[in-house]
Amino acid sequence: MNIFKLQDFTIEQINEIIDLAEEFKAGKKVDYQGKKVVTNLFFEPSTRTHYSFEKAAMNLGCKTQNLEAENSSIRKGESLYDTVRFFESIGVDAMIIRHPQKEYFLELQGKIETPMISGGDGTGNHPSQSLLDLMTIREEFGSFAGLKVVIVGDVVHSRVAHTNFEVMKKLGMEVYTSGPEIFEEPGYNFVEFDKIIDKVDVVMLLRVQYERHEKNFNISTQLYHNLYGLNMERVNQMKENAIIMHPAPFNRNVEIGDEVVECDKSRIFKQMANGVFVRMALLNMVLGDE
Ligand code: CP
């Protein structure tokens, strides 16, 4: 079993994964007793996804391996397929793969039998991030249908936005996007931030992904923050029970004010904590019984 795109899962399956994650959060134990090896293959930088998958594997009693891409034969030109095929040939039980190429997994599908879970493919998809976002939302509101969310910022470069926009709509949420027009994704219900902020249940902020910009993005951080960032003035316009989310890492005082990161409405660190339980659920699904 592979997990590359959350869009491939039904509403029922998504809720079942979150149910299992909640069981782990409540103390459910699965112990593979060191008999399973989970290998992390990160070809792009990561802190949260990489190390929370590793923590999830440790919580399940797995052994872990972490490819050091910079010190590996990738430096000699070895391909993604040949690297993954190597880890399969030495007998690892699951691989977590993050790669800068959108839909990198198409070249692996049907050729690799070891279970693979994507930790993100370029600007395409981020299934485990979307699941931890959804778990956090369901914990807060009990269900998804009818909730209104605005995803604000560098939408066009964001695999989080691309996955969440499609999956949240499938779950019956009303999804809007906002931010600079240069980051607008066609067909993504683009609205002005200040016209929607007092109407939504969830404000999900996105990092400005400077490293993915082909052209210079010539707005000062101060102007960006004033026009599109979440500051306390905007937080005070949000509905009483509305929450703030961000996949992180964040650019403080660009898309999110320093004082907003840990304000009462913020669920950002809860998202990170839930990431471990969601990833335990995904690993348990692909590894099977103890
Ligand atoms: N949210 C997220 O994917 O963070 P990392 O890039 O640190 O893994």
Task: Describe the overall structure.
Helix 2 packs across helix 9. The protein is 34% helix and 13% strand. The longest helix has 20 residues, at 268-287. The chain has 2 domains: 6-125 and 273-287, Aspartate/ornithine carbamoyltransferase (Rossmann fold); 127-267, Rossmann fold (3-Layer(aba) Sandwich), CATH 3.40.50.1370. It has 290 residues and is of the alpha/beta class. The structure holds phosphoric acid mono(formamide)ester. Residues 46-50, 129, 247-249 line the site of phosphoric acid mono(formamide)ester.
Write down the secondary-structure element order: HEHEHEEHEHEHEHHEH
**Spatial order of the strands forming the largest sheet:** 2-1-3-4
Major sheet attributes: 4 strands, parallel
Instruction: Look at the structure and name the CATH superfamily of the largest domain.
Output: Aspartate/ornithine carbamoyltransferase
Bound molecules: phosphoric acid mono(formamide)ester
Q: How large is the radius of gyration?
A: 19 Å
Descriptive key words:
alpha/beta; globular; 2 domains; 290 residues; binds phosphoric acid mono(formamide)ester; 9 helices; Rossmann fold; four-stranded parallel β-sheet; 8 strands
Topology at a glance:
Layout: H1 11-25, E1 37-42, H2 48-59, E2 63-66, H3 80-89, E3 94-99, E4 116-121, H4 127-141, E5 148-152, H5 159-170, E6 174-178, H6 193-196, E7 202-205, H7 221-228, H8 232-235, E8 243-245, H9 268-287
Parallel strand pairs: 1-2, 1-3, 3-4, 5-6, 5-7, 7-8
Bound molecules: phosphoric acid mono(formamide)ester.
